[in-house]
Design goal:
about 240 residues; alpha/beta; Rossmann fold; two-stranded antiparallel sheet; 11 helices; 8 strands; about 55% helix; binds adenosine-5'-triphosphate
Amino acid sequence: MVEREKIIDGYKKGIVALQGLLAHGRGEAFDYLIGEKTQVFAEVAIEAAAALLLISKKPVVSVNGNTAALVPEHLVALSKELGAPLEVNLFYRTREREVAIYNWLRKHGATMILGVYDERVELAGLESKRRIVSKKGIYVADTVFVPLEDGDRTEALRRAGKNVITVDLNPLSRTARTANITIVDNITRALPLLVSKVSRLRSLDSITLRKIIENYDNEKVLGMALEFISKRLEHLASKGVTITF
Ligand code: ATP
């Protein structure tokens, strides 16, 4: 099934929110601008993300409707590879959607799913429903992997002292600029690559893993993504393609 169909199917199943359809459309536009391929700026970020997840004591993989619909099997693989829980963490939270995502993840083999049936607490610095997190998950996590996240929540996680790794096709989004590590790539390509990177880096000692993280510069990586996009726009313009936003 192609991505767009997966998102529509997820919407019909009550997994994806209406707003998730719009977010997907924004993602498609940016994917076109990065050539619909994993570029070097994403590869560098994936390596740093794998290293950070491996040295973290309590990593958590946050799951929203779009990621659940697009890459359920890879979310489960990452959770198993890291021995880290998945946490259902929704921007547009309803009980029905939480349960639908929980069941969907279970169907794909997930065994550690927080945020639905376990105890939840409030993370400071966010309004109402958006601050609810699992007491055993994001609340106590040192590193949170939050693909396709919104800027307010990413900022709240950083303020709470968490390391934040995201996947966001828009290098200009607040999330992309706030996270410690931003993988500018489509989640459908980035997640399988991250899972295999974690598996390959697992044999490295913690000093080597820390070196990878120390040498990583998120601003530089975002700059590379922007430069790539602006060159691509110039190239398209030189071929007579007009792009309007
Ligand atoms: P922010 O609040 O961070 O400034 P935003 O208002 O766009 O960003 P959301 O709609 O919550 O917030 O974020 C969704 C982000 O996910 C968008 O930047 C979109 O480009 C990106 N996105 C959508 N689909 C994908 C995908 N398949 N892979 C990676 N990123 C995606």
